[in-house]
Amino acid sequence: MIDGTRGPAADPHGESRRGGGRIVVLSVGLALLLLVLVLAVLAVPTLQEYRRAEATGVERVGLAAAGYAERVASLLERADHLAVAAARLSAFRAEDEGFTVLRDSLTRDVRWTPALDGYVTVTADGKILDQFLKGRADMRAFSGPAVVSRNRDHWSGPVVRVARPMGRQAWFLALERGEWTQNGEFTGAGVAFLSLESALREAVVGRLFENALIRLQDQGGVLLFESRSAEGDAGQLWLSPQRHKAVLDLYSNDAVSAVQTGWSDGLFLASQRVPGLPLVVSVQIPEAVFMAGAERSLLTVMGVAAGAAVMTLLILTVILRDRVIQRRAEGRLREAEERLRFALFAGGLSLWELWFDSGRMEIADRVIGSLGYRRSAWPPRLRTVLRRIHPEDRRVLRGLWQQLRGGDLSRCSLDIRIRTAAGGWVWNRADGRIADRRPDGVPLRMIGVLHDVSAEKGREETLTYAATHDPLLGLLNRQVFDDACRAACGPDTRFGMIVFDIDHFKRVNDGFGHAAGDQVLKTVVARVRGALRLEENGQLFRIGGEEFVLLLPGVCAVAAAAVADRLRRAVGGQPMTAGPAALTVTASFGVCGSDQISAVTVGDLFGPADAALYAAKDGGRNQVVLHRPVVPEPQASGG
């Protein structure tokens, strides 16, 4: 907006901009100084953390190798016991009780030891006597005759072989043991299968370092088992066995029976011999397992320092620009409010706002003024509004209020009548929706608009009146009469129906013209209305050109006939003007009451009443004929 009180040279923001530039320069210098101080303070602890992480990695990888070697040695010992027991089965026959007892013991040991995958007992001729496998070991890698022929004379200790099932990433050690009788007769052999992957999972290194690489070799360097890297295709990260041994040799010249540890190529390395067996365990763990914390600390320190400098700069800049931005925002807000007020004014809408907890309700001054009230006479309370709403609309509004408070509705639209200061009623359409709720869903505030729809309601009433009333006489038309005929009628709901028309009305039209005929119709209707009493509460219908129906609720046939005779006298009692002439016009009446016939609906009365009307015309006109029910004649009894 333009402020006309200031000249073109006035610049209220110039000094702020110059001061803001100096503040920015100062904030940048302070931020850089703060960054340097933070890095200096945190550099020493970060380097110390690096050294501790390196020492921890070397120590842990040695412990991991020792733990896995001890676990393999323990499991190999159990597997050796299992192989000895399995070989002992060959000394029994299958039907012997000792065979059953020993086999049950073997099966139980395999079931309860996860790393043991089964056993096989082979007879002296190479046939399989008994076997129990968990399903992971593949017997295609085992040949009974080959075991016997290869090892029959060479079982001075446990024979260890490696079997790898085809198509699987699982390795097994097979321990073979022979069995002889006391007289030296060879009876057979037993083979126990040990899962090296299970041994890895049960060992400490397998549980703590999921991405560790484990190798098992004999002393000749032959690879017996190798676990897979958890990093999938990043296998090039791991060192070859030869490179692994060369790195450790640089760190230590000890014998391989001792634990060798080292750190190279981004890996912590360790090797140890399995106690009591010619096997060597090698472990490789990525340095990230131990060094990630130190690296994260360094990155965190650098990020905090940089963030502190940036945030200092941003905060000072924001503070400097805040006043300018605020003033611009306030200007835009004022413009938006002006546009909103104009849009509401142009659309004939007025805002209202309601607070559920306090019952406070604010309504625009425009609505209060249009109703003829002063602002001081309209307190901002909901009960003030309710007192000025039509009782019928108030009941509907209270029901909507309960639904809104209960959460069944979130918006509403209702046409209500509001009393003006002069005592009249003005139709308004209230549209609203819930704007705020508590965490439990209970509404707190509602906003909406009011729109004066009196003109719309007037058009609706005009259309409704035109659809239900005769345009000439203002009486209810034939469509409304047909609807009324559908109403139920019975002993508890009496109705009397009077059907009448004007005698010789065609002569009036033919002799004096339709304008005179219309005047006669208006005069007849006016005299009928004047003759009706207020308590009779009758409904008068025009169902044809000069034919009318008067429906009297709660009236019997005799009372309806008395009303009809009063109407007859009122119509023909005095001459009436029809154009230039004065005519004496009469009418004929037919009457029927629900107490005369077994009527189910009001429409059942029309036929008898219409028949009575024709009887009145046939009897000379200008009279009332009451329907007379036909009474069946009694039948003579036979004698």
From TrEMBL:
Q: Which UniProt keywords apply?
A: Membrane, Transmembrane, Transmembrane helix
**First-tier enzyme category under EC:** transferase
Gene Ontology cellular-component annotations = plasma membrane
Q: Which GO terms describe its biological process?
A: cell adhesion involved in single-species biofilm formation; negative regulation of bacterial-type flagellum-dependent cell motility
Q: Give one GO molecular function term.
A: diguanylate cyclase activity
**Matching InterPro entries:** Diguanylate_Cyclase (IPR050469), GGDEF_dom (IPR000160), Nucleotide_cyclase (IPR029787), PAC (IPR001610), PAS (IPR000014), PAS-like_dom_sf (IPR035965), PAS_fold_3 (IPR013655), Rev_trsase/Diguanyl_cyclase (IPR043128)
**Which domain of life, per UniProt?**
Bacteria
- Membrane-spanning segments: 23-44, 298-320
Q: Name one Pfam family in it.
A: GGDEF
Q: What is its EC number?
A: 2.7.7.65
Q: What protein name applies here?
A: diguanylate cyclase
* Organism from which the protein derives: Novispirillum itersonii
